[in-house]
Amino acid sequence: MRQSIRYLRKGVIETVEGLDPKETLLDHLRLTKRAVGTKEGCNEGDCGACTVVLGRMRDGALHYEPVNACITLTGMVDGCELVAVEDLAEGDALHPVQQAMVDHHGSQCGFCTPGIVMSLFSLYQEGTRPVSRQTVTDQLAGNLCRCTGYRPIIDAAMSVCAGLATDAFAREKAGTVRSLAVLHDGVDVFVGDEQRFFAAPASVDSLARLYLRHPDATLVGGATDVGLWITKQLRDLRKIIWLGRVEKLDRLSVNAEGISMGAAVTHARALDVLAGVDPDLGELMRRFGSTQVRASGTVGGNIANGSPIGDLAPALIALGAKLYLRRGDDGRSLPLEDFFVAYGKQDRLAGEFVVGLALARLRPDEAFRCYKISKRFDEDISAVMGAFKFTLEDGRIAGARVAFGGMAATPRRGKQTEAALAGIDLDDSSTWPKALDALGRDFQPIADMRASAEYRQEVARALLMKALVEVAGAETTETRLLGRRERADAA
What we know:
Oligomer: single chain
Strand content: 15-25%
Mean pLDDT: 93
Strand order of the largest sheet: 10-11-16-12-13
Low-confidence stretches: none
Largest sheet: 5 strands, antiparallel
CATH architecture of the largest domain: Roll
CATH class of the largest domain: Alpha Beta
């Protein structure tokens, strides 16, 4: 067992001992390392001023991904290369991304600029070539700027990302990979004592034993939610178990029958896989948080926190996903919709944790649609999220699964709506109102700052109508996926 956190920065392995379990990476950089180029803005993972980049090994390759340092815990950089804005320049020569920002006048007040530079540094290292304008705007969805405006920033990105990376990080990649291999020692990490600790188990068995001994500990995947407990709710989390080092918990398996993914699979990794199930899922994931949030947040974390407005759960419920849990040596599975019991309460025993989930691919006789309604297109929480899977037979709906987020205290199926949908004729819209009316019996939403109850009810009806209209148009998931691939090839 190791009692310290280790990470790579500027070619040197840094060791952190005596770690406060809830210390954020932003505080570590600014207060301990005096790397004050990384800024504190919103302190909740929205504005991107605190963006840094983590280099992580995945499937034998080094990947650079942006994260929000304000809600990333220091312990979560164990085994990674940490890149802050101070680390980019070579002597007096600016990094190509920094120089492009200067050349295209991409900065005014400069407060947000370090985070923007780091997001573009990640794109410079990772982006497909040639980079598209849409790719750049997606990359910057988690970075706010109110001075310059985005045109010169986007122009800078298009310029510098036109070719392959040629900076010091690209040249020294082989050495970085060797250094990261040293950090991946496969041992459990436990910093602290039995009353206050940051732990990072290396195996599912170690995690099961530790969590059974400390069921009051907080499990952390990407900290995109837990980080706000610390920075906004000021909770004193005394025991934290990070899942990012657990072997096999980040496994992602895709075959002809379906998909299985471990609880620690990030949204960034899940995006293309879920987009391969249906294009609507791909669009949902593209709007999921920001690039920084998707690089950190995990599928298991999004489910385990039980948010009634989480985007992913309703879609997975409509697809019939199965959830796997473990407590000590015992494991069990259940339909995902049965996991959510009440607001803030899930069917999870003390010391029990989410291991992963599985879902089957859509059959040729099935159609799927999902839609997110929010005040802002990018990086916003849903007011209503609707997901629908229809089993079709001779122009009629033979069976349906309907799920909503934002319409109840938990993500939930609309079983009366499903029953009313069975048998309706897609070519005869006069048979549809009974299903639309059933929504009012399934859901009685509340009013809050995001939407009124009346608005939610009306939008839910509109989304079901939209799904029926689209599916009645007879375009199958297979042809929609084919069209998506053809557009990607053309781009």
